[in-house]
Amino acid sequence: MTFSPERTVAVVLGTRPELVKLADIVRLLGPAARVIHTGQHYDDALSADFLDELGLPEPEYLTGVGGRSRAVQVAAALAALDERFAADRPLAVVVQGDTNAALSGALVANARSIPLIHVEAGLRSHDRAMPEEHNRVLIDRLADILCAPTPHNRDQLLAEGVADERIEVTGNTVVEAVRENLPPRRERARLLGDLGLEADGYVLATVHRPENTDDPAVLAEVLRELAALGHTLPVVLPLHPRTRNRIEAAGLLPLLDRMTVIGPTAYGTFLALARHAALLVSDSGGVQEETTVLGRPLVVVRRSTERPEAFDDFADLVAPGPGIGAAAHRRLAEGTRGLHRLASLPSPYGDGTASRRIADLATATILRDTPLGASRGPLVAT
To answer: In the CATH hierarchy, which fold is given to the domain comprising 184-343?
Structure first.
């Protein structure tokens, strides 16, 4: 096999958070990166516009995956990826997190004996009701290199019997993603002014997980709690298309009247809003990490979490219901002093060099496993 620096590392992804967290790795790999988008969550508002914002190359797109059931998504992505890897075999595969796209990439890499690197390994909610929990456990069993964001994640993998030599504590790529994509102060001030908001004077909320949106009664309870917070501070709600559809179907649109509802935002716009929110209320996994970099308090509306590191200082975990408002008011009562305290704390997710470490691991894997690797230069951009 001819060894070429072009397209030697397949980076398989399918959602907006994966684009964010893998962007720096793709840039560092340069021409060695071959980005494949399964289309798990694909529309212009949630994925396509991100390519320009993050400075990423146009991916290879798979068809027939998005909008299908979990089993059909995985099956369709498996078939398409296997066909592509048979025709143009990568020397390593990188996947991130716990999506159906990541599981599909991992299964095909394993089936074709291609080294697999799992970014964000070792996260566990211990909640078997979460499809993502099954995905992340399976990917970790298949991966050749497990990039654990924190020592806690490494300990979890060791407790499950994963060999120590397969694990690397790298930090989480979210740290550099936030630092690189947070707009300058002046641009943030303009954005707040356009929305009629004052720094530290509003609540930023996101709701999209099925556990909060699929049951109309649960969705109504979450929205009522958010609307009630509007009596204290303005509540800004960037509304996910799936959530909007659920709200409309359940006849819950009047509950949005007390909130400032905006469409899905660019990543930089969301970070700007998060940076100056007095409080965030969210069911997002990524927001649990981002708030530790931004130094903002968070109420996580979920029954379980795979990111316990955020809960020592930055976040509170509450189930959908009255606990949302109670936790929010406790955090808001800390006021400016609480915001200054969080801003002074380091993120538990590392120092902003995770992408470099992971890209170096991908390079080392190829040089180790490819006979011709020793005769060529490094893959990673300097």
So the answer is: Rossmann fold (3.40.50)
